[in-house]
Specification:
The protein is α/β, with parallel strands linked by helices. It contains 19 helices and 7 strands. 51% of the residues lie in helices and 17% in strands. The strands form 2 sheets. A 5-stranded mixed β-sheet has the order 5-4-3-6-7, with helices on both faces. α9 packs antiparallel against α10 and α9 packs antiparallel against α13.
């Protein structure tokens, strides 16, 4: 390091410090592989008369995560040495492939990736090479989409985001996303599905049925938006599940129906509704001047009341976990950022490949969100255990009790 500082050596590129270190480490490892293959170390007298020996080296340039490195590959006289670190015919190491996949997962196009690698490492790669590296995740994507899932989930959040896919002409299509929270509060993306040109309860029924076929036998709470027919699709798949409509979606829908000068007053009234234990707050709003001015807002909340009331029956600690789909919305925001850079995709498979790589970036050991516990999860879990011992909440809506009490039983006695 002192000599590198004194000479002003570059970090990357031909003769760069990291490049030379990588070359030295690779050659030392390859020499160790040769010793293992021959059964004796270099210059060891034990190799005399063994029938095989070292026979010089051959130069080979490989692409690594430090750039292009020229390595001396050792040879043996019998010609049967098969290096494992740098296999025969391989021109790039696994670390370099991961660099390409990481850039691809961030929404960079093939042209952008080539430009980045050329500028950062001084390496020129072909578009075909990048396509081969990214296409290699197709089998991994299929295995991930069909992996078995846990039998019971306390909460599953479902939502859809829209992307542009070229099929003759460019059209927007929904991508259905399901995110589960297990008993430890850890988030897991359960799957991605590309739908037709419109988001519908029929397609959601297919998605939920696939989750059930992959092992999800029951869900305590399914948090979703107010899509018509979606609650029926959930209860048809898991009869004991409680459907919770996202409060944030209701507020946004209400704000679109109210004039801007009345937004502060409407927000204040709506806060009283979604924090109240009964429907009386909604009745008061209906009879108020604001309710008379904006009857469409009243109708919006009454139409969603059956799927909204489970939230009101929960203690405050559990309400903070289930009152909105913000958890899945944050994941969707990161996926939208990835797809927005690409504009549109040539096929559904290409779109799924990019989205899967983006999801994989979220769940890698280096990611900040790995094993991340959902907000307020521990308080909610402790409150659910406490509630299961003290009895049900007065005025609890019908249909809530089964799934609500299933949560602490699974978590405490079985799970």
């Amino acid at each position: 390091m002192d000599r590198a500082d004194a000479s002003g050596a570059a970090l990357l590129g031909q003769g760069g410090l990291l490049t030379e270190v990588t070359r030295a480490v690779l050659e030392r490892a390859l020499d160790a592989e040769m010793s293992e293959h021959l059964g004796y170390d270099k210059h060891d007298p034990a190799g005399r008369g063994s029938g095989n020996s070292r026979n010089g080296t051959s130069p080979k340039t490989v692409l690594t995560d430090a750039g292009a490195v020229t390595v001396a590959i050792p040879r043996d006289r019998n010609g049967d040495f098969e290096p494992k670190l740098v296999p025969k015919h391989a021109r790039r190491l696994a670390g370099f492939n991961e660099q390409i996949l990481s850039l691809y997962a961030r929404g960079m196009s093939v042209r952008d990736i080539r430009s980045h690698l050329a500028g950062m490492y001084g390496v020129e790669v072909s578009p075909d090479l990048i396509s081969k590296v990214t296409d290699a995740v197709a089998d991994e994507l299929a295995a991930w989409q069909n992996r078995p899932l846990d039998a019971i989930w306390p909460i599953i959040y479902i939502d859809a985001l829209w992307i542009k896919i070229r099929s003759g002409s460019v059209a927007s299509k929904p991508v259905y996303l399901a995110v589960g929270v297990d008993m430890d509060g850890c988030k897991d993306v359960l799957g991605l599905w590309v739908g037709d040109q419109g988001e519908g309860a029929t397609t959601w029924m297919t998605v939920l049925s696939e989750l059930r076929n992959r092992g999800v036998e029951d869900v305590c709470i399914v948090a979703c938006d107010g899509l018509k027919g979606l609650p029926d699709a959930v209860t048809a798949t898991w009869p004991k599940a409680t459907v919770q409509t996202c409060v944030i979606h209701l507020i946004r829908a209400s704000m679109r129906l109210a004039a801007k000068q009345h937004h502060p007053a409407v927000v204040s009234v709506l806060r009283a509704i979604y924090t109240a234990p009964t429907e009386q707050a909604l009745a008061d709003f209906t009879a108020s001047e604001l309710g008379q001015r904006y009857p469409a807002v009243v109708r919006t909340w009454r139409a969603a009341w059956n799927e909204f009331t489970p939230y009101l029956a929960f203690p405050p600690e559990i309400r903070k976990v289930v009152y909105s789909t913000n958890l899945i919305e944050s994941i969707n925001a990161r996926l939208r950022k990835t797809t927005r850079n690409r504009g549109h995709f040539p096929s559904e498979q290409a779109a799924l490949k990019v989205l899967y790589l983006a999801v994989r970036e979220l769940i890698t050991p280096k990611a900040r969100d790995v094993n991340h516990v959902a907000a307020h999860w521990k308080k909610a879990l402790n409150q659910s255990h406490s509630s299961s011992r003290t009895g049900s909440t007065p005025g609890e809506p019908q249909g809530l009790t089964q799934s609500y009490w299933l949560w602490p039983v699974v978590g405490g006695d079985i799970g």
